[in-house]
Every structure is written in structure tokens, then in C-alpha cells.
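FIELD: query
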Amino acid sequence: MAPAIEARALRRTFRDGIEAVRDIDLAIAAGEVFGFLGPNGAGKTTTVRMLCTLLPPTAGSAHVAGVDVVADPAEVRRRIGVALQEIGLDPVQTGRELLELQCGLYGLTGRRARARADELLELVGLSDAAGRQIKTYSGGMKRRLDLASALVHSPDVLFLDEPTTGLDPASRLTVWEEVRRINATGTTVFLTTQYLEEADKLCDRLAIIDGGRIVAEGTPKSLKAEMGHDVVSVSLDGADPAATRAALADLPGLERVIAERGRRLDREGIEVAPIARARPAVDDVFLQATGRRLEEGGQEREREEVAVP
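FIELD: result
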């Protein structure tokens, strides 16, 4: 079976010379939930816009649902659903009105439109709010309605660009559940995210993108297994990370080092919070692939962390 999404040496260079996406290759199977993980500015949204025909590639090729995104963009758009970061919902419409309007754009009218709207409202858990104006919806409800509107025409592939950015933890979990339900119907899901837990919990496979390049790819389990060791994290309260790395550089493996690391840091006058040992997480994979931790949501970190093998 042909991949649901396939890209070869896909590149996008903007007029100011910035290379936003640099020769990336992708092969995503039908029915997968595939995650694109990276910080702001890594090239996630630019990649999605090329695959959705909203932005032409500078070089390379891409096929979505078996269709060339450059040669036949109209057919690609007929086969995909898209929910971008900016939610474009009319606040004075009701949820049902919005979905019936969307149905009309795809040739579904009258009884067929009402039936499809009911089906989608049930899918995303908004049946009870169908008659309310959208301006009364919470952020999570708006995001779920946006997902429903992207599914009106039963697309082969659904693109979600950071679907839970800005949502509270409870709403984020609800959106995750809706994505799982949508995928269970057979829809391939391509989502971008800067949330590590989201990538770990939702995705069958993921790629880490940094500086426009894919630096790691695989299942969350396989990527963590490739590290080959547990992770010891040293949390610093104002200490110098470079001095800490230097102090720990020549110590042996995990079996004998945790207590010795504490003693070594104490001798060097470096004050630390508790030293923790844990199985690798997606955050550790990102650190190994890029040399830094992913800054979730652009928030400043209150404490510096150093991970050592």
C-alpha cells in the first residue's frame, strides 16, 4: 500500500534566505498517528503548509493520499482535513450551524448535512452544546469543533498543527481522546506538537525536527530504547552547568556513580537538588538528538538541568 504521506528532499527557502525546511524525507503509513516534534521555529508549520498545498516547496517532492501536492493541489485538498493553530470560527453561529455550513461546501445539504453534523457532534462530544453560540464555548470545545469541521468530508488524512497549544491540561486530555477516536475510524493523523507528553502518548511514530532538519525518527519506544541506558538528572539551583559537566565528565557508568556524583559535586562546591535516575523519556531523546531540552510553550525554565549518561 502506498504511504498516506510521502516526501523526498522537501525544502523551503524564503525570500530572505532563511531555510525553514531542509531536505526532509517522510513516509507515513495509512492509519498512523504521526507526530512532528520540535520547538517554535523548527520548521513544523512550514512543513504542514507545504503538505497541505498552502505553501509551494522550493525543492523536492511530496505526495499526500497518493496525489502530488504541486501537480494536483485541488485533489489533495479534497482528500485532506486541516486544523491549523488559528481557529477560524464564527462566534455568533451555533456549533450545528457551522458544521452544516461546512457540509454545504462539500455538496452535502438538507437532511444529509444535518445527519453528518449530528454524527460529527457526537464524535467530538459536543451534541449537548450543538445549539449554543460558539462564543460561549471554552477553548477546548472550540478546538474540538474545529476538528469536527475538518472531518466533514471524511478525509483520508487529517493535519493538526499544534492542536492543544494554549489549552489547560484537562482540555488537552479531552482533545487527545478525540484524536484517538478519529484515528480509530481509519483516518491518518499528522500532528505537530511541542509537547513531549503529547508525542509520547498519542503517536505511533514521531520525528524530531530541529533547524529545519529531521534529527531523529521512530516509535517513541524505539527512540527511548536507542539511548541504551538510564538517565541520571542533576537539577541545579543557580549552579554553573559547564562546571557541573566538567566535574562529572570522567565518572564511570550508572551502576556505581550516583552516590559518587553527589560527593564529587559537593567537593567542587556545587549545590544541587536531588539527583534522580529514570528510564529515558522523549525529552531525553530530544536532548540527545539536539543537545538541548525542548522548551515547552516558550516558557522560561526556573531551573537548569543537566542530563549525564
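FIELD: remark
The longest strand covers residues 19-28.
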